[in-house]
Amino acid sequence: MKDLQLTCLREDEKATLRLRALFARYGYRPYRMSKFEEYDLYVRNKSFLLSDHVITFTDTDGKLMALKPDVTLSIVKNSKASEGGLEKVFYNENVYRVSRGGESFREIMQVGAECIGEIDEYGLCEVLLLAAKSLETLSHSFVLDLSHMGILAAVLDGLGLTDASRAELLACIGDKNLHTAREICRREGVSPEGEAALELLITSYGEPSRVLPLLRKGLPKESCGALLDQLERILDALSPAIPEGRLHVDFSVIHDCRYYNGLVFKGFIEGIPTGILSGGQYDALMQRMGKRAGGVGFAVYLDLLEELAKPRTDYDVDAVLLYGEEDPPAKVASAVERLSADGKSVRAQRGLQEDQRYRELWRLQGEEVTLLEADA
Fold first, then answer.
1. Does residue 276 share a domain with residue 344?
2. Residue 159 maps to which CATH number?
3. 3-class SS at 264?
4. Is 153's pLDDT higher than 80?
5. What is the pTM of this model?
6. How many CB atoms neighbour CB 222 within 10 A?
7. 264-314, pLDDT tens digit by residue?
């Protein structure tokens, strides 16, 4: 039977209910926070945000406050986790920022999960599994792309580049721009071995069983071997739990190295051209904020689900039930219950309204309900 209650919810609201249930099933507890945060938190970490546009106001005590544009920063700031401890939380919070491609501020519902404290490899696997399952709750056609900032850093460290050239090459990796990367390498006198390792990161994409052997063969063992071992262990643990073809290695997934240091990932679903999920290890962020702990988590950007919303139906309601002034309320209520028993929406009223759209038109006549019109 069609669940009328759920059909009345927006796509982001339905997704929120499913994601909350998923996180709770893995022992994550709900986390609530204020709409406001001191503006200084965002000023110091602007590059961590998707947008540097922040709504500010002056509090009654003179402090400059902000409507929160991000949740992770607030969770990290207020976390009491430390070495030896572990916090697992999830949230669904409204954030206030300019949406992607937008020109004005919006209140956006965001859902995510964070694991903070002493995080082992199982903890990393669990968060990645939750990310994949989160995508699957939104669409069965999804892809989770996984990268490793440590491997990227190890390759770039071996090229002997200036900070400016390093930033240029990171941009090339993110854009899969092999031509420009080669030009930079030749301009900076990068060795053939270093250039080949960089090209491998740019061109490698696909399922772990195909990509990992290429990385093993082409990346320097001294600097990348242990990191590749970790990546392989995590991928081996995840592969049985994620549908075949849904987990890919992709080094174009790059997050700011001032905040992220290990595994980073993005999630995509069919019908939305940009990533709907983003996350990773942010141990470097924890250290920047004076926390002696690690962190890993992700956020789902539910505003993007609007692109998947079905076009508006041709009808305002499934059925209109007409009744007269003489019909007792109890009989009208009984007729509405009978018509809506199969899940259709029913609107009872005395007369038709101009431009009203419906599939069926019914008339209450005594004890009977008669169908007057029906759209085939």
1. no
2. 3.30.930.10
3. strand
4. yes
5. 0.77
6. 9
7. 999 999 988 889 999 999 999 898 888 889 999 999 988 888 766 554 456
Mean pLDDT to the nearest integer, 200-217: 94
Instruction: Tell me the DSSP string of 284-307.
Output: HHHHHTT-SSEEEEEEEEGGGGGG
Closest-CA residue to 210 (of 248, 244, 262, 267): 248
Q: End of a domain among 308, 331, 359?
A: 308
pLDDT for the residue numbered 182 = 94
Can you tell me the distance from the alpha carbon of 202 to that of 170, in angstroms, rounded to the nearest whole number? 10
- Token representation of residue 105: 């501020």
- The domain total for the chain is 2
Once rounded to an integer, what is the mean pLDDT over residues 236-246? 92
The per-residue DSSP string of 66-134 comes to: EE-S-SHHHHHHH----TT-EEEEEEEEEEEEEPTT-SSEEEEEEEEEEEEES--HHHHHHHHHHHHHH
As to burial, measured by CB atoms within 10 angstroms (0-12 exposed, 13-18 middle, 19+ buried), residue 51 is middle
The residues, any chain, with a CB within 8 Å of residue 219's CB and separated by 6 or more, are 151, 154, 155, 197, 200, 228
Residue type (1 letter), 305: L
3-state secondary structure of 274: coil
Strands (E), 103-238: 105-117, 142-148, 205-206
- The structure tokens listed for 73 are 């920063």
Measured distance CA(327)–CA(79) in Å, rounded: 62
Nearest residue to 276 via CA among 247, 305, 248: 305
> Is it the case that residue 132 has pLDDT exceeding 80?
yes
* Residue of higher predicted confidence among 296 and 358: 296
Give mean pLDDT, residues 3-7. Answer: 52
